[in-house]
């Protein structure tokens, strides 16, 4: 039952958090706080998740862990999106992208931009979404993130379809499909 899974997950996080505290492992504590927030968000407990994220953000700031702060903002963006607070979610995604960029984390910057592009598309800010998604696409190529690249291509196809650029849309969909075939046709994967 789902409540049993919730209790097990939270109990495991409490034990991991205590262990990291005993070991004085700041990075472990930060990781636990982020995971703890994710568990609460998964079960729809958004207020508690946000509280955990604020605690995690404070820890990350104390440590000077820019990527940790960015991760907090990215997760908060996803939580606000799940709550239907799209404009606030977009602001958090922008902060996450800026922080990941400052940390030199190309892969996570691309993910934050993809998240922002999705949110902009949901708000019918299609031209802005295209600009952000194209940037995400370039970063995902640079990071050699094939799966993320496919996601960005597909969402770009959707964006171009919304503004009536069917040929551009089909080109992006074709590229995404080719990546899917490439990923799915690797020897030994489905043996």
How is this structure best summarized?
It contains 9 helices and no strands. It has helices at 2-22, 26-42, 46-63, 66-82, 86-102, 106-122, 126-142, 146-162, 166-184. The mean pLDDT is 91.
Defining traits:
mainly alpha, elongated, 191 residues, 9 helices
Could you characterize the architecture of this molecule?
- This protein has nine helices and no strands.
- With 191 residues, it is mainly alpha-helical.
- It is elongated, with a radius of gyration of 19 Å.
The rounded Rg comes to: 19 Å
The assigned structural class equals mainly alpha
Point out poorly predicted stretches. Answer: none
Question: Shape from CA axes?
Answer: elongated
- Strand proportion, as a percent range, falls in under 5%
The tally of beta strands, per DSSP, is 0
**What is the helix fraction of residues, given as a range?**
over 70%
Topology summary:
Layout: H1 2-22, H2 26-42, H3 46-63, H4 66-82, H5 86-102, H6 106-122, H7 126-142, H8 146-162, H9 166-184
């Amino acid at each position: 039952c789902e409540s049993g899974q919730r209790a097990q997950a939270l109990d495991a996080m409490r034990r991991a958090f205590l262990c990291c505290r005993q070991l004085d492992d700041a990075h472990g504590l930060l990781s636990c706080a982020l995971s703890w927030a994710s568990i609460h968000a998964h079960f729809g407990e958004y207020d508690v998740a946000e509280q955990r994220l604020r605690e995690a953000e404070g820890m990350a700031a104390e440590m000077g862990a820019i990527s940790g702060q960015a991760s907090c903002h990215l997760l908060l963006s996803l939580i606000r999106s799940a709550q239907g607070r799209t404009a606030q979610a977009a602001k958090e995604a922008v902060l996450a992208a800026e922080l990941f960029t400052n940390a030199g984390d190309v892969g996570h910057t691309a993910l934050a931009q993809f998240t922002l592009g999705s949110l902009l598309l949901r708000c019918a800010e299609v031209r802005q979404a295209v600009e952000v998604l194209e940037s995400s696409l370039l970063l995902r190529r640079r990071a050699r993130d094939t799966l993320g690249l496919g996601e960005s291509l597909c969402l770009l196809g959707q964006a171009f379809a919304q503004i009536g650029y069917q040929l551009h849309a089909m080109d992006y969909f074709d590229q995404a499909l080719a990546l899917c075939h490439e990923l799915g046709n690797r020897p030994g994967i489905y043996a």
